[in-house]
Write the structure tokens for this entry.
Amino acid sequence: MTKKASSPSLEKLGLHSSLDCVLHLPIRYEDETKLSTIGQAVGTFGGLTFQVQGVVIKQEVLFRPRRQLLVVIRDEHGDELFLRWLNFYPSQQKQMAVGVNLRVRGEIRDGFYGPEMVHPGVKAVSPDAPLPTTLTPVYSTVAGVGQHVIRQAISKAFKDDELQSHLKDLLPREVMTSTFVGLSIPSLWDALNTLHQPGKSDDLAAIQDRHHPAWRRVQIEELLAQQLSLLQAREKRLARQAVRMSQQAIKGGVLENFLKQLPFQLTNAQQQSWLGILKDLGESYPMNRLLQGDVGSGKTVVATLAALHCIDHGYQAAIMAPTEILAEQHYRKLKNWLEPLGVKIAWLTGSLKAKEKREAQELISNGQAQLVIGTHALIQEGVEFARLGFAVIDEQHRFGVKQRLRLQQKIDDVEVDCHQLMMSATPIPRTLAMTFYADLEVSVINELPPGRTPIVTKLVKNERRQELVLGLVSELNKGRQVYWVCPLIEESEVLQLKTAVETHAALQEALPGVSIGLVHGRLKGAEKNAVMQAFAAGDIQVLVATTVIEVGVDVPNASLMIIEHAERFGYSQLHQLRGRVGRGSAESVCILLYGPELSMAAKERLQTLKETQDGFVIAERDLALRGPGELLGSKQSGDAMLRFIDLQKESWLIEKTQELAKQLLISHPDIAQEHLLRWLGNRAEYLKA
């Protein structure tokens, strides 16, 4: 074991040893090797970063329009630059006292007082202090832990006598060269030294954009650990026992009766997905399958077939959803479908009264409840299934990794495991699927049921809002219903967005005689459900809502959705919200209302939504913007996953590393285990969730 990193501040970052410190790689680099004059920097506007220096000639705390610190520096040529901080501490004021020579780094823009830098990086130095000769690494950190503390810890870690042996190359050189033909790969020790302390002779541009051989080495190392973990998880799953069901439907069973009374034909994509699930249910090891399909593609029907097949074989089935609204949507739909067929359904959520909870738990534990639907309450203390054979986890990325693990542990019996089907209306881009789902079979429903019409998406400026309100009336006159979505509940001084409460009041005033409902996250569960039921029943014509309606709301009569300040929403949210309309046969429209100041990213996002309804195209754009951690829900584990690789740019590296992982497990299992321990330690469990 390498030496402990004793500082409590380093513990906050999870840096417990010398090994942890040197594997804490820079998130970016700053080029402090060049110094510009203020005149040169000011004459080159356009989002570039400059480093300049000068003497502080003025420091002042202003209170209009809000409290801020203003510092003015002047260089040797007599040019001046304003520095401004909206958040600051007394220690900073002391550091930048009048007469002190500052070296500052940041982006120059045209401010109220003249050319300025807002929140620049600052160092107090002597006027003739030498410049660094190479790139300065910048590390991810937490409040109270400065960059200098991390740099000192890493520098100290490299002096640990035991470290080099811990960083010895585990992977046989011949295996590396045969897998990554033509790639110059340094030793791990050399790679880490280069990344923490780039030399003057190194290709600094390649280090900054992460294409340098040193980056390639750690990318391969980290990706290999992740792939080994997933392959091991698959091996372990295939070795476990599960209830094995016949692939033939039981004659006269509920599945056969359900298919007879289904008022529509399954699409080809639904049929193929069902056959894949049916095959898995016939295996002696537990199913681990992801069923993905766009909003409205009919995933619930397919999951229901699997649940009924399981019930016909004498086992219980469970469906777990992340929100009460979505769970209740499933409950109401399945109750209508299945209770006439004699299926006993139990309903369990956190908001139930104590007596109702006890009754539900009793039905679950004595096996009377054949199908159990609920939220994460299904995995809490006191819930014991009699014969659980199959579980559906809806919108699986919305559950924390620990919650998903807990579900596995909860439903896994010592002798017989439960089959699991995860459902997601957020399509997983191919690069994510191949990287993170090595232990997952994937089914895709990529066609909409017949009778569904494509949704027309329109971009409308906020200043045309009144026109829009008047246009609502024609839609309502056809007997249709409307969603109006707002991003905030209460007015925010900073964002100045229209709120759900305010919009609800304004629409009531503008549309007398129209029934307008309001639903948002701060309503109690019972109030929220009452409003949703009234909208589903047609008693409410216009529903003003926040994003609580993002998933699970199915009202076929709703044909118009208006999303206020659409520029404030992400790809996935906009796509999910839009999917709440277009669920019936009427032509549906989604209007994205946007404000006057649009960033380039927001313009691109809204344009993409206007041009396509293909969830996979949207998911790829979302991946480029947000990275895999947020899309998969993995950030909730507190552990970053694949910190050093851009999955979209380096897909070729993923394929090669997967080959290497398979080869190592077969030919060098001891090396594979040592590699896993070095990179993941106990985090491997999260990757298997």
Remarks:
- Residues 320 and 393 are 5 Å apart (CA to CA).
